[in-house]
Amino acid sequence: MFIDSFLNTSRLYMLEQTAQLPLTFSKPAWTPHDYQKRAVAMMLSQACVGLFLDPGLGKTAIALSAFKLLKQQGYCKRMLVIAPLRPTFSVWPAEIKKWSNFSDLKYVILHGKDKQDLLDVDADVFITNVDTVGWLFANDRYRQISADILCVDESSKFRHVDTARFKAIKKYVGRFKRRWILTGTPAPNGLIDLFGQIYLLDEGAALTPYITRFRIKYFYQGGFGGYTWVPQPWAMDAITERIGPMILRMKAEDYLTMPDLQHINIKVDLPPEAAKTYRRMENEFYLQLEAGEVVAVNAAVAGGKCRQIANGCVYGEEDVVHTVHTAKLEAFVDLIEELAGQPTLVVYEFKHDLAAMLKKVPGPYLGGGVSPRQADKIISDFNAGKTSVLYGHPASMGHGLNLQEAAHHVIFYGITWDLELYDQTIRRVYRQGQTHKVLVYHLVAAKTLDEVVLETLKDKDHTQATLFRALSLYNRD
To answer: Among 171, 186, 177, which residue's Cα sits nearest to residue 243?
Structure first.
């Protein structure tokens, strides 16, 4: 097999070179498992491939291996990788440096004030952040790197077709000879999320070129006011059949030794006065508190205010923070004391929640205002056991973060609506190499939107799990 021949040749070359050099510590060779060979083979055999792989299955190394093999055979010259911020700076460069198979690949990170000059560098792999896509494809800048492979890591970042990043890249995807998308959460909000990602592969050949046609063909309008696109009863089977030839789905539990995972809901009863405040916001969209007014201009804003109140504080006019109760904060402190110094990842949504927790339980955090370099130091210290509590916002922890060597407890002080962020955050701890049972705690304010959010996440997860099962059956040997 082509991939086996490549790996054997690489090993032989390494042995020959090592025999001529003094004894030194050399980089290990990446030796793929059978399931990884299957993924590489698929990327070699067809131009458009989507790897729907759980974290820990090595999708970065798989993509690099496929690229290296194609480059060696003269089928491609350069690869453009588009990824979230942390994978851009940490995951892709680290994987290239880690293995001897890839260490000869020269890479460039297109980011920062010098990114224009970096377009002219003679490199093999150009890595850029999703937020730089608009700049890269404006004025045909992408042409300067002459990349013939497009690899979109965490392609779910392109699921919304009305975003600037999707619009910027849409008309150019067909100019790449090969297109790969990588993600473990392709449908966090349901089947509707697939359109933009699959478009990156085939420009609409499978699911129609237009989002409007896609909606009309596979969905109907339902929900409150008819604003929700609900899949037709037959949509799952039809969509799976259309995209199946391009997609490889692999589940971590099927190929890796995974730890046990348990979810624990800790109910918190709001004090009577706080419960009344919550209901007033829910019903009237307005509060008159001691320190000022809190106004919600519509139901969506009121929902956000209600979730803040459930946590204990709420933003008022000019972002003034009003404390409504401390019930959830007290439950959090009790839980931390019960864990008795065991390394714990604490997830927050609102800055005022982080501020309140830090006063009670000091610790570093990953979120707004923390640079990639600072984040690396924080993560390193946490993994080394220098700190027992690490706070993080799900948007800052969702991808490219490995905490399984330190923590096996995850506390959600506030619970995000976003299934992708929720699932990916848990998988920073729940992954291969974890030697303990992973415990995920939800601090849930009783009779509030906290309970609704948890149920919504279950519904979304059910849809995505059904899609995964269908794709697994389609791709089975």
So the answer is: 186
Tell me which residue has tokens 């849809």. Answer: 463
Domain membership flag for residue 2: no
- Do 227 and 372 sit in the same domain of this protein? no
107-110 and 286-289 strand pairing: unpaired
Q: Using alpha carbons only, give the angle 429, 453, 236 rounded to the nearest 5 degrees.
A: 85
Q: Which residues have CB under 8 Å from 477's CB, separation 6+?
A: none
- What does the pLDDT average to over 388-399? 85
Give the span between the Cα atoms of 255 and 58, in whole angstroms: 11
Q: What is the SS3 string spanning 254-277?
A: HHCCCCCEEEEEEEECCCHHHHHH
Are 328 and 445 a contacting pair, CB within 8 Å?
yes
446, 432: one domain? yes
Residue pLDDT, tens place only, 317-359: 878 898 999 999 999 999 999 998 999 999 999 999 999 999 9
218 and 273 in a common domain: no
Q: If you write DSSP's letter for every residue of 233-258 in order, what string do you get?
A: TTHHHHHHHHHGGGEEEE-HHHHS-P
In sequence order, what DSSP letters do the residues of 315-355 get, joined into one string?
A: E-GGG-EEE---HHHHHHHHHHHHHTT--EEEE-SSHHHHH
Q: Which of 256, 278, 310 is the last residue in one of the domains? A: 256
Q: Which domain holds residue 297?
A: 261-463
Backbone angles phi, psi at 182, to 5 degrees: -130, 130
